[in-house]
Amino acid sequence: MALQLEQVSKRFGDFTAVDQLSLTVEEGTMYGFLGANGAGKTTTFRMILGLLNTTAGSIHWNGQKISYATSPLIGYLPEERGLYPKMKVLEQLVFLGQLRGMNKTAAKNAALQWLERFEVPHYTNKKVEELSKGNQQKIQVIASLMHDPKLLILDEPFSGLDPVNVEMLKRAIIDFRNSGATILFSSHRMDHVEELCEQLSIIHHGQQLVSGNLRDVKRSFGKQNVRIRADFPLEELDTIAGVITAHHSLEGAVFQVEEESTANALLQAALLKGPIRHFEIEEPSLQDIFIAKVGEEHA
User: Fold this and answer.
1) What is residue 285's DSSP assignment?
2) pLDDT band at 297, cuts 50/70/90?
3) Residue 103: how many CA atoms within 13 Å on its side-chain side?
4) I need a labelling partner for 105 at 20 to 30 A (CA). Which of 33, 51, 199, 271 fits?
C-alpha cells in the first residue's frame, strides 16, 4: 500500500479545513479527490507533501513520513501557477529538475523529451510569461513529471487546457500510472475522474461524504437514469410515480428513478404517445452523485 491518511485533521484557529479524513491509495492506482471549492482538497495535498503540519492524525507513504529525503520520489502540480514568469522554459525545467535531485544533463534530456511529447519544443527559449495559459499549464505539468516520481499529486491538472491538450495530458498520466506510479488528483470535471480513476473520495467542508471503488460508489447510490429520445415532447412523463427528477433537452429527456419498474412505466407511457428513437437505463454518473451528496449537505 502506497499512501495512507488516518483520521487526518487540520484546523486554522477555530476553522476546521479538514476533519478526520482517512483514505488509502494503493500503489500503482489513480485516485480521484473531489470536492467543491474550499472543500479542503489543496490543504490535504499540502499536508501529504509536508508543507503543512497536521493538527491530528497521521500520513504515511510506504510506511514512512514524507520529508525532504523523499522529495525526489514525489511530483506535485499545484492548482495555482508556480513558475517563474521571467525565466526561459528550458532553463526553468532544468532548474526544477535539479531541485528534485536530477543532474543537469538528465534534467535537460528529460525536459526536451517532454516538451517534444507535449508538442511545444519550440518554446525552449521563450519566457514563461510569453506563453498562453494552456501552454504554461503544460510546462507546469512537465515540471511535476520529468523526474519520474513514484507518487504524483495533481491539483486540477486540466485547468486552462483545450480538449485536444486534455487528451494529450490524459494519455501521459495513464502511461505514468501504467509504469507503476501512484497518482492522486483533484478535478472539477467529474467525467475525467470517472474515466481515469479506480478509487475516489468526495469531500465537503473538510469531511468525507463518499469514498471507495468507483463501481461500488455508483451501485450504492441506489438510483439510475432512464434516457428517452423521441420526436415529441416528453414532459408529461414527469408526473409518473417513482420519477425523482427529470431533465429535458433538445436531445430528449433523462429521468432519475430508484426502481426498474418505474423505467418500464416510463417506456410504456412514451410508446402510447408515439414511436421512440432511443431508450436506455444508465447507471448514475459521478456528476449525479456529486450533486446529490454535496447538494444534500448544502440543503
Assistant:
1) P
2) low
3) 2
4) 51
